[in-house]
Design goal:
mainly alpha, about 65% helix, about 0% strand, globular, signal, DUF3826 domain-containing protein
Length: about 220
C-alpha cells in the first residue's frame, strides 16, 4: 500500500467547522456527546489514574468532544460522497475504504489541533501518549515489537527512526473512526519504515521472507 493510502490522505480538502464546548443542554450550536462516546472517553481518562478529579474531567471532555466530531464528520461524509475513480499514482480503482479515507481526511484540521492542545495543556508527554495509545489500541508497541522480531539486530538508531514513524502514524490515526482506517494509516508509515531500512543497507523483503520461514519451521516442529 501504501501509495494508494498516502494519496487518499493528501486528497482531502480542509474546511473549517466550529463547535461550542461540551454542554449537557441541547442548546443551539452545542455539541451533543453520545452515551457510548462518553463511556469510552471516561475509560481513556480513567486509564491515566490522575489524582486530580477536575483535570481528569477536562481530559474526558476533550476526548469526548474530539470523538464526537470525528464520528459526526464520518457519518455526514460517507464513502458515497467521493466519486468513483482511480488513484493516479498506482492506477488502481478506489475501494470503499479508499473513498472513506478521502472523505474523512477532509475533516477540518482544527478538530485534531483542539484535541492535542487540550491534552497537552493538562498532561505530560507520556500521558498524552497513553491517550493516543488508547485510541489506536496500542498499535505502536505492537508494530514495533514486530519489527524487532523480524530485524533481530535492529540498531538503536534504526529503532528510534521507526518508532518516530509509528508515533506519527498514531497521531494521524486518531482522527479516523474505524479500525480498518486506523490500520490503513499505519500502513503508510510502515511503508516509510521499510523504505528506510532498505535505504539503510538492508533488504526488507529478504528480512521478512527469512522471518516467515522461521515461523513456519517453528510451527512444523511443534506438530512433530
Amino acid at each position: 500500500m501504501n501509495k494508494t493510502t498516502k494519496f487518499l490522505v493528501i486528497c482531502g480538502m480542509m474546511a473549517g467547522i466550529s463547535f461550542s464546548s461540551l454542554n449537557r443542554a441541547h442548546a443551539q450550536n452545542d455539541i451533543v456527546i453520545p452515551g457510548d462516546v462518553l463511556v469510552k472517553a471516561t475509560e481513556y481518562a480513567t486509564a491515566l489514574k490522575l489524582d486530580d478529579a477536575a483535570k481528569s474531567k477536562r481530559i474526558e471532555t476533550v476526548v469526548a468532544i474530539h470523538m464526537t466530531k470525528v464520528k459526526d464528520w464520518h457519518n455526514d461524509h460517507p464513502a458515497t460522497t467521493v466519486p468513483s475513480g482511480i488513484n493516479p499514482v498506482t492506477g488502481n480503482k478506489l475501494s470503499d475504504l479508499d473513498k472513506q479515507i478521502i472523505a474523512d481526511s477532509a475533516m477540518p484540521a482544527s478538530v485534531h489541533q483542539e484535541l492535542m492542545e487540550g491534552l497537552r495543556k493538562d498532561l505530560s508527554p507520556e500521558q498524552v501518549e497513553t491517550i493516543l495509545d488508547k485510541y489506536t489500541i496500542g498499535k505502536v508497541a505492537f508494530t514495533m515489537a514486530g519489527y524487532k522480531a523480524i530485524v533481530t539486530d535492529l540498531t538503536a538508531a534504526e529503532e528510534a527512526k521507526i518508532l518516530g514513524f509509528l508515533k506519527e502514524a498514531r497521531e494521524m490515526a486518531v482522527d479516523y473512526k474505524s479500525m480498518k482506517q486506523i490500520s490503513a494509516i499505519f500502513e503508510i508509515y510502515k511503508t516509510k519504515a521499510e523504505q528506510f531500512l532498505n535505504n539503510n543497507g538492508r533488504s526488507w523483503r529478504a528480512l521478512y521472507s527469512d522471518y516467515t520461514k522461521k515461523i513456519k519451521a517453528e510451527k512444523a516442529a511443534k506438530k512433530q
